[in-house]
Amino acid sequence: MADDRVKRTSAAGAPADGPAPGPAEALPGDALVLRAAEDSLAGRRRGIRRFTPFLGPAFIAAVAYIDPGNFATNMAAGARYGFLLTWVVVVAILMSMLIQSLSAKLGIASGMNLAEACRSRYPRPVVLSLWVVAELVAMATDVAEFIGAAVGLNLLFGIPLLPAALLTAVAAFIILGLQSRGVRRLEAVIAGFVGVIVLAFGAQVFLASPSGADVAGGLIPGFDGRGSLLLAVGILGATVMPHVIYLHSALTQRRVPVTDPESKRRLFRFEMVDVVIAMTIAGLVNVSMLVIAATVFNKAGLTGVGDDLTQVYDTLGTALGSHAEILFGIALLASGLSSSSVGTLAGQVVMDGFLGRRIPVGLRRLITMAPAIIIIAVGVNPVVALVLSQVVLAFGIPFALIPLIQVTRDRRVMGALVNRAGTTAIAIAISAIIIALNIVLLTLLLGG
User: Fold this and answer.
1) Residue 141 has pLDDT above 70, yes or no
2) Which CA distances in Å does 19 have to 65, 83, 119, 348, 359?
3) Number of CB atoms found within 10 A of residue 45's CB
4) Average pLDDT of the residues of the chain
5) Residue 15 predicted with pLDDT over 60
6) Is the pLDDT of residue 290 over 60?
7) What is the percent of the chain with per-residue pLDDT over 90, rounded to a whole number?
8) Torsion over CA of 300, 235, 377 and 341, rounded to 10 degrees?
């Protein structure tokens, strides 16, 4: 096991910026977590306490699964098609559990994140192509995050969208600055944002009082025309997020240093608890969004309300009362602020991993936020931009998922944590489903 005086690392596993408290010394909070993790791996912590040191990485990843893009696609799906696409949300989250577990396992087994593994595995032209796709995905992600946070600030405080988007950028810098105080503080703040979102939607579900029979009926697979298929692919893009496939492996690659195969197996089992809890919470939030829209909007014939977050905000207040619109606005703002920070973190991992180069976080932020600011400045409908950004993300999923499957089935890289044949088969099936949906969607769009 590692000594208490370990190299200080950021949440992405790379050396953090700022002066270290001493040569090769961990920040106090991180050192405490590391000691607790070592005790759990050695069997010296019992009960629930043995899991707590490992909770965190999946919660940072989970923020991407409840970002403003999810608000747009789930609200639009519920308003237009009622409970029809509930099954898509559930399937997407189940897919996410497997995908995020593979990503976390890669970091534990190899000490590399996915972008680094791709750089060491593929020819340079392939690496550069994957990097370009990952950057486009990062930009599409920022469109959703910045628009969501900006709309949240506008709804709650009346701030115009463009200044609100710039305030979001400032807030992201502040949140990311917590890395200099230890990764545990960043994880705690992100988990706090997740908690706010959960409480807000839990209260809205209570006020909406949806029918259990209707929710159960939505678990039966089915579509209703090309519009529902477009939203289904958008839900996949908003839920199975390509950039956190890269990020999660970085979050686990040096968090708890272990070297022997048995310790790696135990560490992965603990991390799986983190993944299951975080993804389940994200799944419940996503289902709640769709269920609320189906109950409040679709049943009242307000099928177009989900196409405008401002209308969603106003109609929730009118239909449910009890300041439901404020709860929605707070959840949207918390989602946008936290996910924009996570998106920047993922962008750093992608560039550093694929190119072996780090650029200042400020420049990184400016590059990926530019399309979002332009979209806001020219007045594009926010929900249309949000939904289309999620479709872009859906098309980017295979370019992250296929390399992840190839790497995690390679015993030379993964050692004792190499994928079992069944795990690889399920992951390939997931990839095939996503790719097939994208092909069908592209055919529909080109066919007019």
Assistant:
1) yes
2) 33, 52, 30, 20, 18
3) 17
4) 85
5) no
6) yes
7) 47
8) 120
Contact 330, 156 (CB under 8 A): yes
CA-based nearest residue to 361, from 100, 102, 176: 176
Residue type, 17: D
Can you read off the two tokens belonging to residue 416? Answer: 């004792």
Q: Are 215 and 83 in contact (CB under 8 A)?
A: yes
- Rounded to whole angstroms, how far apart are CA atoms 378 and 367? 18
Count helices and strands in the chain by DSSP H and E runs? 18, 0
Contact call for residues 134 and 115 (beta carbons, < 8 A): yes
Render pLDDT for 77-114 as a digit per residue (tens, 0 to 9).
999 999 999 999 999 999 999 999 999 999 999 999 99
Q: Where are the domains of the chain?
A: 55-446
Tell me the C-alpha to C-alpha distance, in Å, between residue 275 and each of 57, 99, 278, 328.
Answer: 8, 10, 5, 26
The answer to whether residue 361 scores a pLDDT higher than 70 is no
User: What is residue 342's DSSP assignment?
Assistant: H
User: Which residue, 260, 205, 231, 183, is CA-closest to 8?
Assistant: 183
From the list 231, 386, 384, 201, the residue with the least C-alpha distance to 292 is 201
Residue pair 246/12 in contact (Cβ under 8 Å)? The answer is: no
Burial (CB < 10 A; 0-12, 13-18, 19+), residue 302, is middle
Residue 252, classed as helix, strand or coil, is helix
Buried b (16+ CB within 10 A) or exposed e, 167-200: bbbebbeebbebbbebbbbbbebbbebbebbbeb
CB 44, CB 279: distance < 8 Å: no
pLDDT at residue 201 tops 70:
yes
Between 345 and 194, name the one with better pLDDT.
Answer: 194
Which structure tokens are listed for 53? 């040191």
Write down the pLDDT at residue 238. 67
CATH architecture of 55-446: Up-down Bundle (1.20)
Six-digit token string for 141? 């992600």
Q: Tell me what pLDDT residue 331 has.
A: 96
The alpha carbons of the chain give a radius of gyration, in whole angstroms, of 21
